[in-house]
Design a protein that fits this description.
The chain is mainly alpha-helical. 61% of the residues lie in helices and 4% in strands. A three-stranded antiparallel beta sheet has the order 1-2-3. A hairpin with a 5-residue loop joins strand 1 and strand 2. Helix 3 packs parallel to helix 10.
Amino acid sequence: MKKISTRHYYGTEQRILWIYNQAISDDFPSLFVGYWDVYETWYDHGERVEGGLSSFLLDATLPPAEQYWTRERFGNYLYGSLLSVYFSWESLQAVKSARNIRDVKSNLAFIRQISGVVMNLFTALDALSCCIYIAENRIPAGCGQAQGEQKHLRSLSIKSVKEKINEVGAYGPLDSLVDRSEFKYLSDYRNLLAHRLFLQFQEDSQGLLHLPEDLGQLDSITQRKDQYLASDVGTYLEAALGIIVVDFEALLRELGARYRKRI
């Protein structure tokens, strides 16, 4: 069993360790290094605050029970991002193994698995945007958790966070990420999934299913145009995830470095 080299609690947390010992950590080793780096910074920050060596993300104007809420929420969002990345990857494995889906039950399971890849991937990215926003100290003093969640964190997305933090030269991978064709396609796909779950696919001679090239086909099960991506669903999603993870890894590296400087 692989171990996480750390003196901090997360290195023995069962769910994190279990995920780390799945094949996802071999598929994306740099992604996990990025997560551990940010986790280490977060824990070190807590120790520095307890030792009176840092006041970053400490809001003394709030009641004692809420003075540290932003740092605590950072840890929750980081944990949620890690779990969501795993759930996305896990759903992808089911999509990749699907073949010749003919009965209704298998077909509906396939749709659910595709939705799991896309929705969990964007949940992971949006959770990371909340971490970035908190680490850049953009929640004003005197803002309690309920207000902060409602007015600041709830509306954040990986597409909007750079504009929200307005930090020149920071988080360049956000620009390359949102400009990638794979990100744009899956972002539109997610929006359609959230509002109208009508999916249709074209099956090739090998029993592989293909996504629509024209996303307009996703909003009505009655549309029958034959414009589809050349790759089957599993191959396309696997390639898209691998491309998006490159920027994900870079964002984690920069987040860890900028956070550490602040503490």
